[in-house]
Amino acid sequence: MQRNIPGAMAAVGGLGSESKMPHGVLSWGFSREHCIRGRELAKKMGTICRVCYGGTGNFRFANVKAAQERRLNAYLDDPEEWAGNMAYLIRHVSPDYFRWFSVGDLRDELMLAVIADVAKHTRKTKHWLPTHEAELVENFGQKLPGNLVIRVSADYIEDWPDSDWPTQHTVHRWPGEPVPARSGDRRHSVECLSYTRGNNCGSCRACWEPRVRNTSLLLHGPGAPKHKKKLLPVHPNNHFCEA
Ligand code: SF4
To answer: In this structure, which residue's CA is closest to atom 1 in ligand 1?
Structure first.
């Protein structure tokens, strides 16, 4: 099938370009209202989903919400066709790195299979996918492509995920104090220092790096400690994400 960028963009409902992401790195996701576990987690105090930025800032605007609905519906209408368009787009407009679910999450095994297929057809691209759906990922019956780094996210702030999945993601309250990796070893955890760069990844690609067991993000937005502008020294073992 002959594809072109505008046509493929329309067919997937558009891609996101969050200001935090490195230049030229695009993303795909949908509204947090469609997160299956996340919707339940958001009802509980102390969870990461309770303070999800997907309900703040630009994400509250009607045009942004409409775009999120368009993206999910484009996938649901025809996952196979959607996968072909996504792979084409990633190769052409985000060829080095791609981010899944800046907001949103895996909904079922089919969605993971389709995304894995997109990654298989974009071998030169590094994909990063954070998820609260640990069981879905752990029980996935197929081999995942090596260029797709899935990070199982902790459910609670200052906690690690209840999962042995090798690549994880956590949220901490205090600058310089990332949550240790599940192994308990702080050297296996990289603190996300985007807060020292105006909330931008800069040259850091730790989240896409399979050797990094845990990336820990400083809590921001609702519930974040008020003093966070006074930055403390960063964790000394932060090799990947330098200020
Ligand atoms: S750890 Fe690095 S790659 Fe991950 S979000 Fe933070 S700055 Fe970006």
So the answer is: 192
Q: Which residue has a Cα nearest atom 6 of ligand 1?
A: 192
> Which ligand 1 atom minimizes the distance to the CA of 194?
7
Closest C-alpha to ligand 1, atom 8 = 201
Q: Which atom of ligand 1 is nearest to the CA of 202?
A: 7
Nearest Cα neighbor of 99 from 206, 177, 190 is: 206
Query: How many Å apart are CA 176 and CA 186, to the nearest integer?
Result: 11
64 vs 58: CA distance, rounded Å: 7
Number of the ligand 1 atom closest to the C-alpha atom of 190: 1
pLDDT in tens, the chain (243 residues): 779 999 999 999 999 888 888 888 999 999 999 999 999 999 999 999 998 877 667 777 778 888 899 999 999 999 999 999 999 999 999 999 999 998 999 999 999 999 999 999 999 999 999 999 999 999 999 999 999 999 999 999 999 999 999 999 999 999 888 998 777 777 788 999 998 888 899 999 999 999 999 999 999 765 666 654 444 444 545 556 654
Burial 158-168 (b: 16+ CB within 10 A, else e): bebbebeeebb
Buried b or exposed e, range 92-126, using 16+ CB within 10 angstroms: eebeebbbbbbbbbbbeeebbebbbbbbbbbeebb
Q: Which two tokens stand for residue 22?
A: 């490195």
In terms of C-beta density within 10 A (0-12 exposed, 13-18 middle, 19 or more buried), how is residue 205 classed? middle
